[in-house]
Amino acid sequence: MISNLKRYTLYIVNLTDIVAMLVSYAIAFVIRSNLPQLAFIRWGANDYSRFLMIVVLGYIIFNILSLYNDDNFLKRNTREEFAASLKMVFYVMTAVIVYLYAFKVSQMYSRLFIGIYAGLLLVIDFALRTIVKKKVIPMFRNSGKSEKVMILASRRQAEHVIEKILDTEDWRFIIKGLVITDEDLQDEMIGEYPVLSTRENMFRDIEQLDIDSVLIVQDQEGDDQIESWLKEFRRLGKIIHVQIDEFDVEDSYRGLDRIGNCPVVSYHNIAPMPKRQALIRRIFSLAVAVVLFPVYVVVYLLAWLFTLPESAGKMIVTRVRLGRNNRRFYQYRFRYYRLDAQQRIDEGKSPYTVCGRVLRFTHLDGLPVILNILAGDMDLIGPKAPSLPRYLKMSSSERNKLSIRPGAIGYWSCEKNKSKNSFDEDDYVLNWNIGKDFFIIVITLMRYVTFQSIRKNSDTHEQEELAFAAEQLKLRQPLEYDRTYYTKKQSVIYLFIKRLFDIVLSLIAIILLSPVLLILTVLVTLDDGGSPFYGHTRVGKNGKYVTIYKFRSMRQDAGDLEKLLTPEQLEQYQKEFKIDNDPRITKVGNFIRRTSLDELPQLFNILFGSLSIVGPRPIVEEETKIYGREIGKLLSVKPGLTGYWQAYARNNATYETGERQRMEMYYVDHASLWLDFRIILRTFVSVLKKEGAQ
Q1: Cβ neighbours around 363 below 10 Å, total
Q2: How many CB atoms lie within 10 A of CB 299?
């Protein structure tokens, strides 16, 4: 948040720089007109205005990217001020040169004229800034134009408040004197400032004094006392300032804000990035991600095609990382290990797929983080997103770097050595500008093309990759259970017709409901951010593990059961795998659950064959224990989007009563096209009536 002092000082700097640009242009034009070397140039009015327009545009870019975040104007010494002027001239002239060559109009302007203008701008801007800071602002402060303020404070607070005001060199105010509220010190001096009145006589004396405003410093005064003072000073027509009590939090950055209508003092571990800079950084990241997205799609398809014959399975590895303000998210990368990687390592063989070696060597395995950038979890450039074990070992100063979104690349990707950190990441977070981002991009590309890029925390990545491969290998192996208990086979004709109907009806439904699918995707995303879809591993026909997709209806931290659920709700979840009035459900999630719209993505499961339209509901592995020996009977048929239990009882039949198990078994014993048709009709009725939906 920008303070009023910073805002008004920024206006002064802007005005000073603009005057310097105009004066420099006028002098450069006079010099140009009298130099024989420039006599051949013939400029028209449009040429003049165009050059000025380019200069102003360059200054606006400088103002947005750098000057807006500069609050050191009043404190800089002469050398630092010269460097600040040089920085401004560099931005402005860079914009001029880029424009001239990008639009091929460089022949219209003499290089000598541009050089003269740049030199004049540097000298004149530095001179004007120095004059304004050393002469104009002090002159304004001493001229009587500054706001004259009287301080009301206790003896204990008085010197401290004066020091805090003078430390900022706030030129908008001039202290005229004090009122000590807990002692009679009239006509004495506190530092360089006189005590002009007492608590008993302050209203009478302040009314007669040449005072613009009163600063009330809270100490032991109650709210009622301060409120009565406010009313009396308002009657006198004075501006009233009330100091807000602050906690002395070491090495923190404070700012005033509002949460709703509640005024607050916000404490940040590090200075927050200004909103406009954060917006520019975000737009730049999104633009690069959008440009690279087609590259990601092509690489994904090629990686999938080349990996499929060697080690079929999911190509995208999800890893838990911590992002902005230490929020957890799933970071995406390409898989480069075979699913049997651990076994091959034990046998002394290479765990990599052929394609995986290429992805890892070229660092293209990190390309899917484009999805994280588009989803808002990451930016293109920023601090490295740590794993949870790494985060727990980080110092508080290291954690403070996560005040901004982590980056796909950053200073850490510019290093040549895994253990050496020659780049200052704190400087990046505290003093961000677009130039630093371009520097990181250039250095990273140089490391990449010269094969000098490194993989930091590669041991962690390898362990995560191994764990992911082992998990996927397990899911590709069917659940072990007694398959001899139930041996009844369904009719081949019935299965063929049912599968044909599944393909045709799901395809038609996807096409007709595509607008609804798109709208729900947007609504779920906007509700609380994150992915709109939720994939959960269930046990399908013959014990095969399948991933069932839904629209996400729960909060992103829904997995933290002990935090979100009461002991009674936790007990119910452990018995039924469902909860009444589930507190984890979002507002949009509550609606799509009641209307069963959260199930619509399962149309794609039906189309690709892991589900049927009608069948027993797919269950998690833990639920298979409830069925005991009869689990073989349940898993002899393909699970369905809807079923006998769901259509006729919904959530009113529970595992605890045994009613749900009986209804699922009834379907297995009596499955037929006619029963399937009845279940579909009944499901529509149940959904429209919202019977038992949760």
Answers
A1: 16
A2: 20
DSSP string, 468-490: HHHHHHHHTSPPP---SS-----
Is residue 144 helix, strand or coil? coil
DSSP 585: B
pLDDT score, position 44: 47
Nearest to 442 by CA among 464, 462, 414: 414
Beta strand 533-539 with 407-409 is unpaired
CA distance 513 to 516: 5
Comparing CA positions, the residue from 308, 401, 323, 294 lying closest to residue 355 is 308
Burial of 84 (C-beta count, 10 Å sphere; 0-12/13-18/19+): buried
Q: Where are the domains of the chain?
A: 4-142, 147-245, 275-474, 479-689
Considering only residues 634 and 433, tell me which one the structure prediction assigns the higher pLDDT. 634
Q: What is the C-alpha to C-alpha distance for residues 71 and 58, in angstroms, rounded to an integer?
A: 20
pLDDT value, residue 314: 85
Q: What is the DSSP string of 656-694?
A: TTTHHHHHHHHHHHH--HHHHHHHHHHHHHHHHHT-S--
Taking CA atoms, 405 is separated from 120, 376, 429, 434, in Å, by 41, 8, 10, 15
Are 176 and 209 in contact by the 8 Å Cβ rule? The answer is: yes
Q: φ, ψ for residue 487 (rounded to 5)?
A: -120, 5
pTM of structure: 0.64
Contact 602, 509 (CB under 8 A): no
Concatenated DSSP letters for 362-386? HTGGGTTHHHHHHHTS-EEESSPPP
- CA pair distance 487, 256, nearest whole angstrom: 72
pLDDT per position as a tens digit, 663-693: 888 999 888 999 999 999 988 887 776 655 5
DSSP letter assigned to residue 586: -
Distance CA 201, CA 212 (A): 18
Tracing tokens 């075979």 back to the chain, one arrives at 338
What tokens does 441 get? 């991009």
CA distance 154 to 151: 10
Domain made up of 147-245: CATH architecture? 3-Layer(aba) Sandwich (3.40)
Kindly report the backbone phi and psi dihedral angles of residue 176, in degrees, each rounded to the nearest multiple of 5, phi listed first.
-95, -25
CA distances to 212, 631, 644, 653, 657 from 664, rounded to whole Å, are 82, 11, 7, 11, 13
Q: Which two tokens stand for residue 45?
A: 């009015």
